């Protein structure tokens, strides 16, 4: 025996099928409810550059409506350096709606050293000053690299204080760990031609490079290399810090390319 019940859906908010309109209605309703309760709402979104353009556009439209109505609802997003460009492509007024602070490496003279020394000191472990200098110098103050280097030194060093020799001994393990957990997963999303483009950039150095310089190294015209560059930007491996320039989105990717894909290079 079976039974069923058919009920027509009631018309309400957030069900038009148009994402921008529906998300705006939902955000406004949530903002009004928060306002009535005297609280605020914050959405925390990581890797925001992975949002599809229509999704990002809908999110910006919804937040804009809430801002115009002074509702206590906002967004904190984190991601790669192309976020301002993507937000501007989604909605031109996003530059007035958001702030885009750059969060880069830790200050080598203080914060980067503290990130290594203080957690160890809390557990009664000391590190020699030159050992800390070597770790900071290699990682260039990049937080994840500091964390990975510190973890491996902690696992491998046998006594306190940790010496410069301890730090140098585990460097191959650090590089292997970063290659496996950080760099390789990014490189595996590319074709061989795209890898050649990345190798050419790596051979030119870690800084931003003109598209014409890179194209020349892979024996392509700027027009021929343009689609390769665009795909790498879409995949989040490159970004454009200025017109005609491209740079790696993550630090030390040039080192990884030269270390693991040098056979694809021009030199």
Q: Strands across the major sheet, in which order?
A: 3-5-4
| DSSP helical segment count | 13
Note poorly predicted spans: none
Order of SSEs: HEHEHHHHHHHHEHHEEH
Alpha carbon gap, first and last residue = 76 Å
Structurally, the number of domains stands at: 3
Biggest sheet details: 3 strands, antiparallel
Rounded to an integer, what's the Rg over CA atoms? 24 Å
Share in β-strands: 5-15%
Which of globular, elongated, flat, extended, rod-shaped describes the shape? globular
Category by helix and strand content: mainly alpha
As a percent range, the share of helical residues equals 55-70%
DSSP strand tally: 5
Detailed description of the structure:
The longest helix is centred in the first third of the chain and has 19 residues, at 19-37. The protein folds into three domains: 19-97, no CATH class; 111-183; 190-264, Orthogonal Bundle (Arc Repressor Mutant, subunit A). 55% of the residues lie in helices and 7% in strands. The strands form two sheets. Strands 3-5-4 form a three-stranded antiparallel β-sheet. A two-stranded parallel ribbon has the order 1-2. Strand 1 (41-45), helix 2 and strand 2 (73-77) form a beta-alpha-beta unit. It is mainly α. The model has no long low-confidence stretch (mean pLDDT 91). The radius of gyration is 24 Å and the shape is globular. The chain starts with 18 loop residues before the first helix and ends in a 7-residue tail after the last helix.
